[in-house]
Amino acid sequence: MVSKRIVINIGKYLLAIGLLTWVISSNWAPANGKGLAYVWQTHVVEGKPIHTGFLLAAALIYICAALLTFVRWYVLVRAVELPFRVFDAIRLGLVGLFFNAFLPGSVGGDIVKAAFLAREQDRRTVAVATVIMDRLIALWALVWFVALSGSLFWLMGQLEGPVAPRSKGAVVGALVIVGVSVAGWLLLGLLPSWRAVRFAGRLERLPRVGTSAAEFWRAMWMYRCRQGAVAAVMVLSWVGHIGFVCAFWCGANVLWSAELGPIPSLAEHFVFVPMGLVVQALVPTPGGAGGGEWGFSKLYEVFGGSEVNGALGSLVLRVITWVSGLVGYLVYFRMNKQSSTAREPDSAPPTQESLAPALSNGDAGKHPLSERFRSR
User: Fold this and answer.
1) What does the CA dihedral 302, 306, 311, 314 come to, rounded to 10 degrees?
2) pTM metric for this prediction
3) Residue 203's beta-bridge partner residues?
4) Strand locations in the chain, DSSP E?
5) What is 322-337 written as a DSSP string?
6) 338-368 per-position pLDDT tens digit
């Protein structure tokens, strides 16, 4: 286990870098001159109230959506039969949430989460594969989310107006990506199990990385064979994306006033907020600070809103993310004290006695998934 002092020192360093980057990259004024200085003057100096109802709603919805991502990861880990509890998913998910806010991009916490999980598991490559698959499936679900929600709002007539061509173009692009990806997923299902086993054997013969590559491939193949788990993760991802979109929309209304200009409709948020989250994840600043604000301001402008509202909405959600990450950082250490408790009966690791029949048949050293593939 990584020592508490090391994690605390890393956390302090990332917090300082994150604060500095956020102040520098976000201290700008849009074309109408109503930037952060305007917000400070209006709500701090003049004391005009903010919309606290929207702030509380944004925080509550964001926290619930974040907790769903922990449950989603738990489903993926258990699908490959690693010993894991919901308690562990929340514990490591909280530390990942903190580092997501302060490492470069908005997915840097996945690296930390994968490292922590790998240190607690014997099958480390599979443990890392669960984090990678969690991110890949979430991204795939994000495209599905834009395609499905956008198509629904399109049929309901909610994507009309001056920006209708842009909204509908984004939906069509998502539908094309969904079609291509589904075709590839179905073609993978046509691969016989014996070929998957043979391919894993070939990977094992690769120098240095062979064992890890074969282990990773077996984990990927098991997910393809576990359609129920993947479907559950997709549904959880969709619900979580709904939460993040609604949280952003509420955040954009926290500091809104008539002087700041219009805000796109909630239906339009379902189309472009996923794009903004992807842009934020690609920006190499702590938590995507600055880049996320810029991306959402431009998306607001493209969809007929005021760019300052896009930036302020991103800033409000960033504050919620940082506070949630810091609280989760403290809760993680409290939960970590209990992480050495006995595992649940259904996730207990195999004992020497339970492995005795297999070992007596000369199966020692074989991957536990190999026989399952051969039996299919």
Assistant:
1) -80
2) 0.74
3) none
4) none
5) HHHHHHHHHHHHHHHT
6) 665 444 444 444 444 433 343 343 343 444 4
